[in-house]
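the six lines:
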Amino acid sequence: MSAVGHNSGDILPSDAQNMLKSYVERIERLNEEKAEIAEQAKEVFSEAKGNGFDTKVLRKLISIRKMDRAKWKEEQAVLDLYAHAMGLDLF
Amino acid sequence: MSAVGHNSGDILPSDAQNMLKSYVERIERLNEEKAEIAEQAKEVFSEAKGNGFDTKVLRKLISIRKMDRAKWKEEQAVLDLYAHAMGLDLF
Amino acid sequence: MSAVGHNSGDILPSDAQNMLKSYVERIERLNEEKAEIAEQAKEVFSEAKGNGFDTKVLRKLISIRKMDRAKWKEEQAVLDLYAHAMGLDLF
Amino acid sequence: MSAVGHNSGDILPSDAQNMLKSYVERIERLNEEKAEIAEQAKEVFSEAKGNGFDTKVLRKLISIRKMDRAKWKEEQAVLDLYAHAMGLDLF
DNA sequence: TACATTTAGTGTCGAC
DNA sequence: GTCGACACTAAATGTA
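prediction for all of em together
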């Protein structure tokens, strides 16, 4: 489907044009906010690192908490299976 | 280095444990905020779509604008680098 | 879905095991090739540096050129998208 | 240091300019080769997936093989430590 | 060593 | 519901 009743001059009517600008700006503003938050998170990791924590492990921990526990265990099991098939013993 | 003086009992001292919890919670809170913002962006796209805009085009537009900005910054940076490489020191 | 009919003995059938090994080896071979190429690139940078060029500037240059190409492709893509959105079908 | 004896017109002598072009082209060629190889790796993963393998686990397996075994076990231990501190039981 | 950049990997979204 | 593309996150590398 094409935009808001622009009929065929291949030019957007000015109201559609305004809407478009508005959408773009709103999205871009939200993207900036996300970037700011990402920046703050970075600072928290940095502080944690400064206090002797291993940030890589910290990240992994957080991702595990976010993820379904059952899924995690299943993934570990498959990994274990593959590892045995390759002759690697992990744990 | 390992964390806050836990040397090898394989147990975190309670203050380290508290710090850990605090870091995890702060990060998780920031992650939630990001998710909320992402949700809002989704709504904007949805609204745009409802008004007849092609969201794929919209996304491309936004990504090009972002690229433009990034490219502009890169160009400034390379200028600056050249200047340094030449031994002058603009700005 | 799980792998090639290993249903639950938690052991991979020997043909699946062979496939697994084969995939792993192929990927690892490709990774080695990439590493070799990366090594060659490193040598080029090193040679450039030896001839008085600033490698950081060189890298920036290359990244800008890459960006230019990417941007050009994006712009073609967005043109194409607009065309579709307008119901015409160029190319 | 600045480039190949260009003394002060802020213009690169033509031989330096030629070298520069040559370096840029060599690097770009190597980058293309890397991209081709990455493409091939993608195809292998795709084929593996088609035969029922879990590509995510496959990737993890390959990364573990690449990595020092001792390091892997250490990382798991730290993760376990942090997880306990957070009241999560992983394995 | 710590920082910044680049590259790989993972998750999400929309199309078919 | 699966597939492919896109965006975001995380790891690795290279530099100062």
